[in-house]
Every structure is written in structure tokens, then in C-alpha cells.
Amino acid sequence: MNDVIVQLRAALAGRYDIQRELGGGGMSRVFLATETALARDVVVKVISPDVMGDAGADRFAREVKLAARLQHANIVPVLTAGDANGMAYYTMPMVRGESVRARFCATSRVRWRTRMAKASCTATSSRRT
Fold it and tell me: What number of other Cβ atoms are within 10 A of residue 34's Cβ?
């Protein structure tokens, strides 16, 4: 078992039951969890330990704040954010179904990018009103 999931389970024990890793990218890792108080599935995103320095932590904090401001029917909202034993994290509802990667590969790239750009513009402009 990898160290990140062990640390995350210990840090969030009682609040979230971390089940398994769903994936990760350049600066973060994503885990499936159950929020114990509400008995619902959520996704927990944490900053990867290898980018935990000041620049990585600042970038992750900006990502969380930006994601929390977005409001649109097609964007999954941020539920909570925090720091647990030095691990910055945020949670979002678990959405079952096709991954964005699978959707991207199955759909015309131009058409998909156009729809995503329109959704992003709508989400950012709706918070200004």
C-alpha cells in the first residue's frame, strides 16, 4: 500500500473512510472516500508529496479557491477544503460514469473543446452577476 493513502487515512480518520486511489496527475492524487457523517461517496483530492513545497502548495490553494467559485450545472462543486496533518485537500461529490478522458477520446476533440470552453465561460460569468 502506498504511503500517501496510509497518511491520508490516518489524517482524515473519523471524517472520511478512504477506499482507494482513482488517479492522479502532475501535482495531485485523487481518492474515492465515504464521508462518514453523511454516508455519501466523495472524491478527496490531495497535493502530491513530491510537489508539497511552497510553490506547489500555493498553486493547489489557488486551484481550490478557483474551483470553489465556479457555479454551473456541469461543474462538480467543492464541498470542503482543509489541511489534515500537513496534507492539503479538498472534497467533491463522487460522480459515477464516464471519465473526462474517456469522453474526450470518444467525442470529436474540436466539438468537445468548444463545449468545455462555453461551459467555463458561463460558469465564470455567472459568478459576477
Answer: 15
